[in-house]
Design goal:
631 residues, alpha+beta, Glutamine Phosphoribosylpyrophosphate, subunit 1, domain 1, six-stranded antiparallel beta sheet, 44% helix
């Protein structure tokens, strides 16, 4: 994994090397091992690269060119089928200079143009300058594992792996995109292509762009999951296929010339990955787990230790307490660029550093399995959706006022996770997705007068409906589960869950790989009928595919605990005067974007366990604003 950046300037302007290098070196944590830059002969284009060396350590320097220097590449990620691509491309006359996977992207682009994306298997974000066409071509991988940000400015186009790279350009202002606050309070993250910074955008997952030398810009979606099988497979056939695809995805992500390991919990997902890795390697795998001081109900230390012992892993663990929690809360927003309200960022921040300190640079992680195969609460959500859809079909829709009332009262009625579904049915659009945090009524109560003027809820709704409308490109109507999974694949996974993994691991110069989000596995699973998914409970498709092959029944059938943190407890016991001051004195309150009037009684009443997570998200937002806008 690496950090990339670049500039394309208009006629009459030139790329300044000092600016390009400044943009590049904001990404040193993503690539501490090597750096490079390239500026075209007429100085209209510049590319920058910071390298974390993982494959082909002796060569592979970037920016990298083709044989005659007419095509240049900067690349972040891994192409797992690069050896197969190389064989075919060499047969077509292309000459390689390195062993790196990066070079296969270059030659595939030369041979196939933008259609090269169809042939790449991996996790990537890259940009190619084609000097023959005077065109920049860039893309983000199908699942959005790797980030790609850009800014379209008068006279130039800029891009980077992180927003901080864009902000290093003196002509890109640091201005808040205030409506993003509604995105954050609902989903922990902004909805692509929006970002928290006005004028900066992020390329959505599975999208590509071109920028012509004259400034013409185009973007398109290049991948959709497969439609349903014309004849669905039998369950046993589906189990065999899922297991085979999982094996291949895990094997592919072991491609490395440096030490690698795994982030291990006590659950099924990481345990299955560890089992496959051990079988493929033939020797112990380095495993890393985190626990919490005084938080036994949140810890999976013993379960993780048992999984590690089952496969003879070289197991290490770290335990953090409230001091480490506050340290990470204060420091992690510097690396995140976008505030990420997932409390799981805290353990990831520390676990990544612990892993790097133990000499490991690459890890496999279990993210994506819950979304792909189903959370325990999803069957209830789908049943509620069916009932609401029936109720909405009645003449005059008599239940609509009740839906709206339940949505507004969702926090009190225990329906908080279903608030977005209730809201959408009350509006009549019936979009199927899950809100992460605050239901609409609570969000709106927190808006200050200046934010309320900007109609942030309308902006949020338009973005959510935009995601739903993209599914038309699949060419058929999705079933209810696929609608839910579509939203996860196109927002919550890339912009919240995978974003937290990328930013926190890369803050310690560690690369995380995500086998459950191999696009072939996602493609196959997405196409299966809904009736097959929850036959024996949540995640039954995956559990049954590996039953008797990797993990014992006591692990497969253990109740899911998840990667939880005691953030509620730490907040409720130690919500200091400094933390209260950070919220109430924040520029977000002073400038009328958050309501100090709504926040003050919430803080004055004392912090209960129930409020802990919500206040963590507000506190992190204020800390992020302090770092980026208050110095």
């Amino acid at each position: 994994m690496c950090g990339i950046c670049g500039l394309v300037v208009g006629q009459g302007s030139q790329v300044e090397e000092g600016v390009l290098v400044a943009m590049r070196d904001t990404l040193v944590h993503r690539g501490p091992d090597d750096s490079g830059q390239w500026i075209s002969a007429n100085r209209s284009v510049g590319l920058g690269h910071r390298r974390l060396s993982i494959v082909d350590l002796s060569t592979g320097h970037q920016p990298m060119s083709n044989e005659d220097g007419s095509v240049w590449l900067v690349f972040n990620g891994e192409i797992y089928n690069h050896a197969d691509l190389r064989s075919g491309l060499e047969g077509r006359g292309h000459r390689y200079k390195t062993r790196s996977d990066s070079e296969s992207i270059l030659h595939a682009y030369e041979e196939f143009g933008p259609a090269c994306l169809d042939r790449l298997r991996g996790e990537f974000a890259f940009a190619i300058w084609d000097d023959r066409q005077k065109r920049l071509f860039a893309a983000r991988d199908r699942m959005g594992v790797k980030p790609f940000y850009f800014a379209r400015c008068p006279g130039f186009f800029a891009f980077g792996s992180e927003i901080k790279s864009l902000l290093a350009h003196p002509a890109i202002p640091r201005r808040l995109n205030a409506p993003f606050i509604a995105h954050y309070l609902s989903f922990n993250a902004s909805v692509a292509p929006s970002t928290p910074f006005a004028g900066s955008e992020k390329l959505p997952a599975a999208h590509a762009i071109t920028v012509e030398g004259n400034g013409t810009f185009a973007t398109w979606r290049y991948w959709f999951p497969s439609p349903a099988f014309s004849t669905p497979p039998h369950e046993e056939e589906a189990y065999r296929a899922i297991y085979q695809l999982f094996q291949e995805a895990t094997r592919d992500r072991m491609m490395s010339d440096v030490p690698f390991g795994i982030f291990l919990s006590g659950g099924v997902d990481s345990g299955a990955i560890l089992g496959e890795m051990t079988g493929l390697l033939g020797h112990p795998v380095a495993s890393f787990t985190i626990g919490y001081d005084g938080g036994s109900e949140f810890n999976e230390l013993e379960e993780a230790k048992a999984s590690a012992a089952l496969f003879g892993a070289e197991h290490r663990q770290i335990v953090i307490g409230r001091d480490q929690f506050w340290e990470a809360l204060l420091e992690s927003p510097r690396y995140a660029d976008e505030p990420n309200g997932n409390p799981e960022c805290i353990p990831l921040y520390h676990l990544s550093r612990f892993t790097k300190d133990n000499g490991v640079t690459v890890v496999q992680v279990g993210e994506g399995s819950d979304e792909l195969f189903g959370y325990p609460g999803w069957p209830r959500l789908l049943v509620l959706h069916c009932w609401l859809r029936w109720a909405s079909s009645l003449p005059g829709n008599p239940f609509r006022p009740v839906m709206g009332l339940l949505s507004r009262l969702s926090e009190r009625t225990g329906l908080g996770h279903y608030s977005a579904l209730l809201e959408s049915h009350a509006r009549g659009d019936a979009s199927l997705h899950i809100t992460s945090n605050y239901p609409r009524g609570l969000r709106e109560s927190l808006y200050g007068p200046e934010l309320a003027k900007l109609a942030p809820e309308e902006d949020l709704q338009a973005k959510v409906l935009g995601i739903a409308s993209q599914a038309e490109g699949i060419g058929r109507k999705l079933d209810d589960y696929q609608q839910l999974l579509w939203f996860e694949l196109n927002h919550r996974l890339p912009e919240s869950i995978l974003a937290r993994v990328d930013r926190m691991t890369m803050s310690a110069s560690v690369e995380a790989r995500v086998p459950f989000l191999d696009h072939r596995l996602v493609d196959y699973t997405f196409s299966l009928p809904q009736a097959m998914r929850f036959r024996t409970g949540a995640k039954s498709l995956f559990k049954e595919s590996i039953r008797g092959k990797i993990l014992p029944a006591k692990i497969l059938d253990r109740r899911k605990r998840g990667f939880r943190t005691p953030v509620q407890r730490w907040i409720s016991r130690d919500f200091s005067a400094d933390a209260r001051r950070m919220i109430l004195k924040s520029g977000l309150v002073k400038e009328g974007l958050l309501s100090g009037q709504a926040l003050a009684p919430l803080l004055a009443e004392g912090v209960s366990m129930a409020k802990g997570r919500s206040l963590f998200q507000i506190l992190l937002l204020c800390r992020w604003y302090q770092i980026y806008f208050e110095g």
